[in-house]
């Protein structure tokens, strides 16, 4: 490529400070260094975690930054010592790395990795080092990816090479939301055939959890949301029943206990709300019920009565659906191409990068499942 080894000037949506609209700017993207890959981002989803950092976390040291972590693109150039990627490869940048060498990567018990931003910088949600500058200022790369930019630079341990026929405007959703919910049901909860499940929150992550429950063979999948317009979408992914907590004058856990003769076998909290997390736990049957925290938040403490766990319930957390990122994402892409995993049905809005603030507003109001932004021409 003619741009290899050179600084690239391109468009990006910059978050200069918390709680303010993103600003379309021209940024400079430095060439990749050793073990790094520069990627032309073709498409990106807008995920609630982007909104969390902008409107809820608001850590002053996490700005200015370029948000976005659910993208897909094409390798533009590679740094020295990169041997498994070439210009032209289709790839998905990953917010969880997989170095393959640390004790976590070597363990089958987890998908965590000691390398990358996530090892100790959950508060600012980015590494201090960056390949972005704008107007002479350093701009951070959100979650190590920053897909709200036409070009980004990512460490090779956080990039997955995918099938060359994969449509990037669909498989980008496997960079976060769909993989997160789907894997939470299959890998973390380990939903069993014939079981009864409850999914709290019907955004993209929740709907993906519904899909995971269905593919695991669950008999009843109860979808829970305060927005009744989402039920028809939930049915597409496999929900068998819908409950709106606003329709009841008793706790939702009590409603579910009455519906299921004592509680569900598996519950998944896909909102990121500590009160809902407790409700999801309390909705599980005693003895063997499993509840999984999937929604992202680090703002509040959560609480439960000890007897709820002593009585045999299990409370678990799930990050990126338990998938080891570099191994799992290419397999998920192949499952989509084989029509085993739905992706098209999540996309409710197709927009441009310049419309990113409109996409953020759609997510804030709950008027979309996933908006996919066209970033750079393929």
TrEMBL record:
One of its GO terms (biological process) is formaldehyde catabolic process. Its EC number is 1.1.1.1, 1.1.1.284. It comes from the Eukaryota. CDD domains: alcohol_DH_class_III. GO terms for molecular function: alcohol dehydrogenase (NAD+) activity; S-(hydroxymethyl)glutathione dehydrogenase [NAD(P)+] activity; zinc ion binding. Its cofactor is Zn(2+). This is S-(hydroxymethyl)glutathione dehydrogenase. The lineage of its organism: Eukaryota, Metazoa, Chordata, Craniata, Vertebrata. The gene is LOC110497793.
